[in-house]
Amino acid sequence: MTEHDPYSLDPSKVQEPPTGLVGCLKYIGPGFILSASIVGSGELIATTILGAEAGFVLLWFIIFSCIVKVAVQLEFGKHAISTGESTMASLNLLPGPRIGSANWSIWTWLLLMSAKMLQVGGIVGGVVMALEQMFPVLAPAVPDATSAVQVLTTYAVAASVSLIVFRGYYRVIEKAALVMIGLFTVFTVASLVALQWTDKAIQPNELASGLIPNVPSQIDVIAPSSGKDGTFTVSEIHVEGGSDIDENQELFTLVNENGETFAIHSHAAGTVGEVKVGLGDEVSVGTVVATIGTSALIFVAIGAFGITGVGGDEIMAYNYWLIEKGYAAYVGPKEDTAGWLHRAKGWIRIMYLDAILSMIAYTLMTAMFYLLGAAVLNRMGEIPESNQLISTLSTMYTETLGPGARFIFLIGAIVVLYSTLMAALAAWSRLFSDAFGRIGLYSFEEWAARKRAIAIFAWVIPAIWGTLFLTFKAPGWMVLIGGVATTIILLIVVFAAVVFRYSRLDRRLVPTKLYDLCLWLSVISILIVAISGIL
Known about the structure:
Blueprint: H1 21-25, H2 30-54, H3 59-68, H4 70-83, H5 87-91, E1 98-99, E2 102-103, H6 104-134, H7 148-165, H8 170-195, H9 204-210, E3 218-223, E4 231-237, E5 244-245, E6 250-255, E7 261-265, E8 270-275, E9 282-284, E10 287-293, H10 296-307, H11 312-325, H12 327-331, H13 338-380, H14 389-401, H15 405-439, H16 447-472, H17 475-504, H18 513-534
Antiparallel strand pairs: 1-2, 3-10, 4-6, 4-9, 5-8, 6-7, 8-10
Helix pairs in contact: 2-8, 2-10, 2-11, 2-13, 2-15, 2-17, 3-10, 3-13, 4-11, 4-13, 4-17, 4-18, 6-7, 6-15, 6-16, 6-17, 7-15, 7-16, 8-13, 8-14, 8-15, 10-17, 10-18, 11-15, 11-17, 13-14, 14-15, 15-16, 17-18
């Protein structure tokens, strides 16, 4: 490992940008660390929940969410490469009031990150639940209870992530992220392909309907749920059209041919639009028994928008990975020379390639997870919730690859969720260290102090994540709450991107009109979704 401080713009470290595609590909990597962070919480959990609740109709929204935020990411990256400033150093120079030595944006970010802690606490919970599914001896004897073994497992997972990250080596983080993403991608592609040879095969008209922009105002209640199969008879109806219901309220009671009964519950609060069955009617897998008019899909969609693709915190983290990869150091201190301009444009071009390739990767992964959720879970009436999250998600794979795929899925789930923990902790330890440095607790620019602060946060943050999971034990809900907070963080990111572009960008680096058009489309889209979520 080199002992050169990547945050120091040493003229002796300048390097000409590569010109050929092969040469350029050797320097990509920062975007794929973001992809590792995105895949676990965004794709595996939030996207799948949205697909399970909405069916195919919001596929367009998920793809849009992945693509639309990239222009803002590029503006942040361009600013980091041309100035060498870390994210918090840049935010600290934004217009607006200050509290002490820190800008309002840094204090607001710290406040919102309290909700973001819930999100990654949910990811820790996902890993713990997957381990309990693999090794039942680790699970509490009483469902929903918390055992000493579960507490130990939770903090062991948290500590293991700390061990990987606390030394702060960029290369280790980058390589681990790429391996983890690759493994789970192969497995997910196999599942989606195998799905087409089952009774849940995705039909062309379903796929087409998902690509037409539309936000449904109601969701279907599907029977039967809870993994049951066969034909059932409606024995009790507890609601009628027009009645208001709460989330998880019992709506119907069904009975099978053996006299066994089970209930169908609502997956969201709202108003019953139509009851489609009567007493004594026979229903089977996939039967729509009622519709619910609800705003819950808007909440889930906004949460998914914040998490899928690059979220506010991933965009903020991107600058650290670009700097630690060496992009800013290769450009060198700002100079009014043709050489500096050539290097700046060249390394910004490499950053564009890195961001676009990683966007293609995580957009494809996101779409695949959404389609699995819509094709399998939605048709079965299975919504991933609470302590059944991992078990329900595994249904996507066992229904396509057979019962034997469950164990493979659990391994894959651990890998992909763990990749999120690793990438998130690596980013958060830098962001928090930088933020507290701007507040004035120490100097982030001092290399030894910065490494020490990163190491401390690498141990403290996972402990908080684990504690939050043990407190709430609802990973799906925790991830979505964090997603809404991420959407609000995007407002800070958007404001900063506009300032970077129009107030702080070197005039020699002014982009094309097409770039500016994409940037404003990104800004406006983020503002619309974020304001909709707040209102």
